[in-house]
Amino acid sequence: MSDENLLKTPLYDLHVAAGGKMVPFAGYAMPVQYPLGIMKEHIHTREKAGLFDVSHMGQCYIRSTQGADPAKALEKLMPGALSSLLPGKMRYTLLLNDKGGIEDDLMVTRTFEPEGTLYVVVNAACKAKDYAIIEEKLGAQIVVEPLDDRALLALQGPAAESVLAALAPEVADLSFMEATMVTLEGVVCWVSRSGYTGEDGYEISVPSEEARAFAERLLQNEAVEWIGLGARDSLRLEAGLCLSGHDFNADISPVEANVTFALGKKRREDGDFVGSERILNELANGTSKKLVGIQPEGRAPAREGTEIADADGTIIGIVTSGGFGPTIGSPVAMGYVPAQYATVGTTISLMVRGKALPAKVSKTPFVQQRYKRKSIA
Amino acid sequence: MLKYTEDHEWILVEGDTATIGITDHAQSALGDIVFVELPEIGVSFSKGDDAAVVESVKAASEVYAPISGDILEVNTDLEADPAIVNSSPMDDGWFFKMKIADSSELDDMMDEAGYGEYVAGLE
């Protein structure tokens, strides 16, 4: 695809002005890195605050057509406890297919609108597919209203709270996976305490025409740097978070992908969602393969597609995400292995350029997640 | 004598020995280098063979043997600190030394000015 055919986010000019190296990603021209470089961008996010343009992701409202609860309707396709979401609460959930495979992962938030409207964010590469699936399966009950006039920024890292609270003090009161409407610099934004880096932080949905001024305002704070897709990927990999289309796909179940935390407790008991037959069976009886964290012992990164071998050299699986973890200073990976190899500490080999390099099955996340949850005291 | 290839390697020729690394343009394009895989001493390469691998945070790239010959020495400092390739690509960040088997292979390579023009033409 030539550059002219790529979509641009409302922040495109700002990325170019900041020296962002623009690459095609999910049909958009997006910054993969800035002059700081992926390593420093990654570490900056872990130590201060990184600003990410994630406007390419799909934002939509899902409303009911007949006054029913749209969350109840979505629960047919998503195994999270959605109908119990209170206004301003959000959940990570999965869009499933009839075979119990994962079409995409997504964030669902209950808005403050009385009719129970949901604000949903889906992956950029999946948005057309996701909307089509939802409308095809649930079209009689709900309507998907894409928010194409909104940009989405993620501000991630330990300084994110102080940076954003300087503009709107109430964001400091949000806990992880809570959201609210906030007036930031005179602009009404939808702010959630969430992200996909393993750090505390926020995602901020802002009207497209206000996005540039708002991003510039955040960047005035010396704690804030632009962070590109390169570091976004290494941050989420260190945090042990799955990437749609890589660490899972439409054939992989939530049990195989090790995202069973996205299955609501009551939803498991009721089994009232598509693909539940397979998923409940796998929860009870296990799966033949499982996604695991992998810690290579040497310095050589094992990239996506690297074959995994057992001690005898037999190929047993494949790496689905892999690279270098700047925070831990060594390579990290995730991949699928047969269930009997999934125990933390199991010795495996990674077939990098024809050589078997030693590695171990590792716990994830590779770095400690630093979400701000409410104390129970 | 310093020569350059279109694959962004530099070759410092001293007698029948060639010291080989990647150019400043190459390290800049690759970004933060996190791993270098070096050849074994004594191995013979033909011009164009895969001789080494350099990995950035993003991706792996091959480094080709720019000439034919045997590997005499490798820069083991890069195994402990691959970022030397970023900080000193033309000096401390050298990859390996080869014994030059056929010096005529150097004839059609670029000199510094020629490489400068070549890189300018890529941008």
**Which strand order do you get reading across the main beta sheet of chain B?**
1-2-3-9-8-5
Largest sheet of chain A: 6 strands, mixed
Mean pLDDT of chain A: 96
Distance between the termini of chain A: 54 Å
Assembly state of the chains shown: heterodimer
Apparent shape of chain B: globular
The total of beta strands of chain B comes to 9
What percent of the residues of chain B sit in helical stretches (DSSP H or I)?
10-25%
How far is the N terminus from the C terminus of chain B?
A: 26 Å
Class from helix and strand fractions of chain A: alpha+beta
Query: What portion of residues of chain A belong to β-strands?
Result: 25-35%
Strand arrangement, major sheet of chain A: 10-11-12-9-3-13
State the helix count of chain B: 4
| String of helices and strands of chain B | EEEHEEEEEHHEH
Number of strands of chain A: 19
pLDDT < 50 runs, ≥5 residues of chain B: none
Q: How many separate helices of chain A?
A: 9
Protein name (chain A): aminomethyltransferase
Enzyme class (chain A): transferase
Family (chain A): Belongs to the GcvT family.
Domain GCVT N-terminal (chain A): 11-266
Describe this structure in words.
The complex is a heterodimer of chains A (377) and B (123). With 377 residues, chain A is an alpha+beta fold. Chain A is built from nine helices and 19 strands. Chain A has helices at residues 12-17, 38-47, 70-74, 127-138, 160-165, 208-219, 229-238, 265-270, 276-285, and strands spanning 21-25, 28-33, 49-53, 58-64, 90-96, 102-110, 118-122, 142-146, 150-156, 179-184, 187-192, 201-207, 224-226, 289-296, 307-309, 315-325, 330-338, 347-352, 355-362. The longest helix of chain A is centred in the middle third of the chain and has 12 residues, at 127-138. The mean pLDDT of chain A is 96. By secondary structure, chain B is an alpha+beta fold. In chain B, the strands form two sheets. Chain B has a six-stranded antiparallel β-sheet. In chain B, a hairpin with a 3-residue loop joins strand 6 and strand 7. Chain B starts with a strand and ends with a helix. The model of chain B has no long low-confidence stretch (mean pLDDT 96). Chain A binds chain B through residues 32-33, 37-40, 42, 230, 234, 299-301, 303, 323-324, 326, 331, 353, and chain B through 31-32, 34-35, 37, 53, 55-60, 79, 82.
